[in-house]
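Any chance you'd type out a single protein's sequence alongside its tokenized fold?
>
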Amino acid sequence: MNFTYLRYELLRTIRNRRFFVFSLGFPLVFFYLIAGANKNAQLGGIPFATYYLAGMASFGTMMAMVSNGGRIAGERSVGWNRQLRLTPMSPRAYFRAKVASSYMMALITLVLLFVAGATLGVHLTAPHILEMLGLVIVGLIPFAALGIFIGHKFTPDSIGPVLGGGVSILAFIGGAWGPVGGTHGFMHSLSQVTPTYWLVQAG
């Protein structure tokens, strides 16, 4: 039962068109538009395309993780969660399937961004890629929890602005779109208390 539901969840995630638009489309478009126009520039001694790849990887994977909340809210609205409680499947298996599908979306996003980065001259060795993957996987844990929390607190009608606006604010403050507040000051301190900042640093 648990494996069947996990397989169902993964297949449903792949068929979700909004995933391809928001989790894949936006980061790729932003990366090509901004990094492509500044591919010969540097930021803090790092090639700009390399830095921005880490930022867009953070934004894309973060969006992939929290978008899980939209599916949970939709299931709650039609009573699917109540139906699942009548089955032998445990709540732990339910949440495990949700988190696994979110991580699959995040990994697809990362792979496509790595390919996009290579087309703009970003050179990462296999050990660097594996190290980045490991750190990003750990850095995404708070966003997996955030997606589940949002999915249980908001309705399908209200969750769109919450997800879009919330992720955009976290991405901006955390530095996914560029450094915020320099090396000191209030904005820099505020940036460091967000999980997005550490996700960008992991990248």
Q: What stands out?
A: The longest strand covers residues 42-43. The mean pLDDT is 82. The longest helix spans residues 91-119.
